[in-house]
Amino acid sequence: MLLTSENYYSREANEEYLSVSQYKDFMGTYGKPGCEEYALAKLNGTWVEAMEDSTALMVGSYVDAHFEGTLDLFKAQHPCMFKKDGNLKAEYVKANEMINRCERDALFMQYMSGKKQVIMTADMFGAKWKIKIDSYHPGKCIVDLKTCQSITKEFYHPDTGHLNFLAEWGYYIQGAVYQKVVEINTGKKLPFFIAAVSKEKEADIQVIAVEQSLLDEALTEVEHNVSTILMLKSGAVEPMRCEHCDYCKHTKVLDRPIWSSELIGEV
Q1: What is the pTM of this model?
Q2: At a CB cut-off of 8 Å and minimum separation 6, what does 150 contact?
């Protein structure tokens, strides 16, 4: 299957290729645990998430669309962003402010000045992978644009301690996969950067270099998990439910009462 910008997110492409977002649907991140049954339902089309229901995702997609040069099309495809008088809702006015903050910083725009939305594929760990790079500087670096609540916010988990937003949302995994796919295609192992902009009252910006040791660690994790995902996609094993995601809530069938002590699970 030849991937293009038009079919990159299609069901057919997702069935044939693994992507970072699909990987995280199955395996999860610290911030959003995975759910195997949800991931398969999303893959086969029996569960469709309405992006309009998630303002946070929409704002991020709005900023992405601007930097890839498709904002007019994005606006046309998402009338939910507009008030009845035709003006943008407050969240997207804020997105424009975030964009303006990025564009008045020379270093940020230097990193975002690479080739936009570059698609690459590669065979890796027994699976076919696809990636789409926000800003690709051939022979120099890979840059991914991220919107976030706060660049400096810390996330705490009892088993891991304090994490930054890259670890919380699996961006080390993304960097590791992107770096390896580019290396397979070009023979060059390029540094990976996050160009981040926050959604705070005063938008914060930062270009973040990801340490190679963290990318190597994340790639080892991916290699370990790919075989399980492939077995799930092929139907060789039955998927497990997380019982916490929207899909599991929607499809839950009660079979017994539970004890009050079961409400918060194991701590």
Answers
A1: 0.92
A2: 165, 198, 200, 204
Token digits of residue 113 = 């000045």
Q: What is the pLDDT of residue 265?
A: 67
Q: What is the C-alpha separation between 26 and 179, in angstroms, rounded?
A: 21
> Which run of H or E residues covers position 140?
none
- Residue 248's CB: how many other CB atoms inside 10 A? 15
Three-class SS of 175-218: HHHHHHHHHHHHCCCCCEEEEEEECCCCCCEEEEECCHHHHHHH
pLDDT 10s digits, 118-169: 999 999 999 999 999 999 999 999 999 999 999 999 999 998 999 999 999 9
Cα 75 from Cα 89, distance rounded (Å)? 12
Distance CA 217, CA 84 (A): 49
Reduced to 3 states (helix: H, G, I; strand: E, B; else coil), residue 22 is helix
Alpha-carbon 109 to chain mean position: 21
The CATH number fitting domain 11-253, selected from 3.40.50.300, 3.30.470.20, 3.90.320.10, 3.40.50.40: 3.90.320.10
User: What is the spatial distance between Cα 124 and Cα 176, in angstroms, rounded to a whole number?
Assistant: 12
Residues 159-181: pLDDT tens digits? 899 999 999 999 999 999 999 99
Q: Answer whether residue 80 shows pLDDT above 90.
A: no
For residue 60, what are the contacts with CB-CB under 8 A and spacing of at least 6?
146, 147
Burial class (CB in 10 A: 0-12, 13-18, 19+), 218: buried
Contacts of 118 (CB under 8 A, 6+ apart): 132, 133, 136
